[in-house]
Design goal:
The structure is a single chain. With 506 residues, the protein is an alpha+beta fold. The protein has three domains: 115 residues, Beta-Lactamase (2-Layer Sandwich), CATH 3.30.450; 93 residues, Helix Hairpins (Orthogonal Bundle); 155 residues, 2-Layer Sandwich (Heat Shock Protein 90), CATH 3.30.565.10. Helix content is 53%, strand content 15%. It is built from eleven helices and twelve strands. The two termini are 90 Å apart. The chain binds adenosine-5'-triphosphate and magnesium ion. The site of magnesium ion has 5 residues, from helix 10.
Amino acid sequence: MKQFFRTLFGKISLIFLLLIFILGATEVFISVKSSVNYVCEASQKLNYSLARDLAHRFEPMLKDSLNYNAINSTIKELMVMNPKVDIYLVDKHGHLIAYFEKPEKIKRKMINIEPIRDFVKESSYGSLPIFGDDPLDKTRRKVFSAAPITIGKNEQGYLYVILASARYELAAEGIRGSYILKTSAIALSTILVFGAVVGMIFFFFVTKRLRQVTHTVRAFEQGDYSQRLPVTSDDEVSELAAAFNRMADTIQKNIRDMERNAILRRELIANISHDLRSPLSSIQGYIETVLMKDDRLSKDERKKFLETILKNVTNLSQLVQELFDLSKFDAKESKPNREPFSIADLTQDVVLKFQPIAEGLNIHLVTKLPVNLPFVYADIGMIERVLSNLIDNALRYTESGGKVTVRLERINADCVRISISDTGKGIPEKDLPYVFDRFYRVEKSRTRNSVEGSGLGLAIAKKIVEAHNSIIKVESKLNSGTVFYFDLKTYQKEKDKNPRLFVHRL
Ligand SMILES: Nc1ncnc2c1ncn2[C@@H]1O[C@H](COP(=O)(O)OP(=O)(O)OP(=O)(O)O)[C@@H](O)[C@H]1O
Ligand SMILES: [Mg+2]
């Protein structure tokens, strides 16, 4: 039970029941009070002229001197005939002159005269009920009837008739009390039972959705990240549900990213160790051979072995350098050192560098450069590296007799597009989204027969282009060719630094 009232449903129900009870009790109190007032007003109006009617009975006894015996016996006689009233004779200040009660029962010898004066005024009928002091009780006030009366020669007094005398009231109150209380108890318990049943059903359904929220949040907390809440309307609970769903989406995405990152990190370490181990064991093997066969090796053989060792060492140091560069980009330590330069001149230089290799592979390497290209504003060393990586790939993955085209285009006032296309073997569609991932190679085998490469070239190119606030994109068709392209911002005199003439570095 204690547990029940700790729940929101319990608390709302309890407050609701208390509210019904307080409202019901107030209603009963007001209706009892107004029914008592009604009875008083009705009784005072019905007996409005009672005192005046009785007054003439007393007049003969008050004329010259007060005839107490006669007065008392008249009062007694009247009260026996009508037990509902108490009759008093009062002077103009409110002092009691005559009454029919044992003196010890009289609690006040003087009563407030103001209500009596108000009552005997002509216009008093409209302002009933008027309550006056009850001589039998120090605090209680009651409805009455009163009439002016002349005492002695010229003394003003009043006949004061309390309606519903003490005896009568005791009996009447008992009857009324039990009747009203019984009706109110029935009404109140009906309201309570009805209110409790209807209210609790209603609150049960309202809080049901909150319980569903708790249930879902708990399941989510325990690892079921697919849990979502239904958003059925636009009330506060649905708003809460929608907010929870958004939060759950974000958390689920972050968890997936974290899991993917963990897998990538494991793969990265495996790839690095593989790529370091292969050239290292090759170096080790050749050195051991040279040492073992020392004097049995011909001069040419020794030279060939040492060249292989040197090639592996060069590859190793290049791999380490590339890894180092990538980690610098990741740590945002490598920032492009921008300057204005001629992209056309740079492209020609790089292509010139690759021309002998292309000729050796029997690949046609051409440039398409429009005249009057504006300067671009970028890091010349970094862009040279991107161009080299892309041309290197194009040559590497294109068969003999193919063609590689390096094209520059001005696509709008602000941008120059650089694209490197080839007629090579292309990249399968499923691999396209991953070619920029580090160590990703379409040809997974890392044997000596396959095209060599560590799978870092495009990852570095992507990082460099992104550092220039641009995006590198790829389009490819299997067995017909691939194109990589990215845009560079042109040099704007007002915004960027002064131009510097491109210096040929070859
Ligand atoms: N022009 C291209 N045509 C076909 N496949 C390509 C082309 N360029 C890249 N690829 C594919 O994308 C993969 C990733 O290229 P990336 O340059 O990152 O690595 P790599 O060339 O294998 O090694 P390296 O780090 O030495 O450049 C390549 O292994 C290759 O499978
Ligand atoms: Mg490459």
